[in-house]
Amino acid sequence: MALALSLGRRGQGITWPNPAVGCVVVQGGCIVGRGWTAPGGRPHAETQALAQAGEAARGADVYVTLEPCAHHGQTPPCAQALIDAGVGRVVVAVVDSDARVAGRGIEMLRAAGIAVHVGVCEAEARRDHAGFFTRVGQGRPALTLKLAQSFDGRIATASGESQWITGPGARRMVHAMRARHDAVMVGAGTARVDNPSLTVRDLGIARQPARVVVSRRLDIPLTCQLAQTAGEVPVILCHGADAPPALVEAWGGMGATTLTCRSEGRHLDLSDVMAQLGQHGLTRVFSEGGSAMAASLLQADLVDDLVGFTAGLTIGAEGLPGLGALGLGRLAQAPRFDLAQVRAVGPDVMHHWRRAR
């Protein structure tokens, strides 16, 4: 199952709206088939692993990280494919929460006389499929908030200089994190000031994550990198109903997808933004800025994973803080996360925190 999980992770960021599943077929103690969800979500992992195994799949043990699907979509059910292949046993890491499956795949297998074991490496599988489960259960993608800061929590000097607070190792790791998410998201301020491309670079990645910009009035220059490359790498703009129609049309003409979201005063309702992204099919979003956006996401209780990169330099109180105002009066109101990992990355420290249980 550990191998199946590692195979499934190869599809993270490129299979949405489908989950990134891994599958291993074992016959007589030997691996005869391996598969993972293909880019775009099809073929499914089981289909690919069975095709590789061929006749060796008959009577074999199959390890799969998510319950095999039981419904007819664009492809037949994977549970039926396993039955047709004549496998002897199926080991499932975690049950699918999609109402179209939700135990039906397991029932189909058992009804066909196939032994099924559920719950092997379940905690790891739940983490790997967190985006899929969050979209199914809450109607939104799972969200990772990344902050790269000085030791004293600053992301730029008073003059706005920010390149580079962290070293090349940390930046390379951030690019790898982008690649494992369906989309990279920033606010309008970051898009205007930094003019980012938000692409994965120097890792040999062919399929890029979508780029999401949250901007109520779409006040982003049409000459920016995101606009100029919208026809090559997907751009999704979350805007308010009061955005100028001419700008909505102009962005659409450049290849961007525009999503109208609910407003709360002068800002967009980020809960609705995330719901709209979920309806669009996104399962995993990586938010990179800026400080106001980060604070708003935390206030709205939308952050599932918090990843910090801390550099060994100090900027001082006059620098730009990594988080905007949260308006907290008591410590009990502060968002808390559970520590998942700490590691050195060159001269910097990466610390990963997960939503508190």
Specify the number of helices. Answer: 12
Terminal Cα separation, in Å?
25 Å
Radius of gyration: 22 Å
What order do the strands of the largest sheet run in, or round the barrel if closed? 11-10-9-8-14-6-15-18-17
Residues in β-strands, percent: 25-35%
Extended strand count: 18
Low-confidence stretches: none
Structural class by helix and strand composition: alpha/beta
**Topology pattern, helix = H, strand = E:** HEEHEHEHEHHEEHEHEHEHEEEHEHEEEE
What is the makeup of the main sheet? 9 strands, mixed
Mean pLDDT over the full residue set: 94
Principal-axes geometry comes out as globular
Helix content: 25-40%
Summarize the structure in short:
Helix content is 28%, strand content 25%. The protein is built from twelve helices and 18 strands.
Notes on the structure:
- By secondary structure, this protein is of the alpha/beta class.
- 28% of the residues lie in helices and 25% in strands.
- Strand 3, helix 3 (78-85) and strand 4 form a beta-alpha-beta unit.
- The model has no long low-confidence stretch (mean pLDDT 94).
- It comes from Sulfitobacter albidus.
- NADP(+) binds at residues 148, 164, 190, 194, 290-296.
- Pathway: Cofactor biosynthesis; riboflavin biosynthesis; 5-amino-6-(D-ribitylamino)uracil from GTP: step 2/4; Cofactor biosynthesis; riboflavin biosynthesis; 5-amino-6-(D-ribitylamino)uracil from GTP: step 3/4.
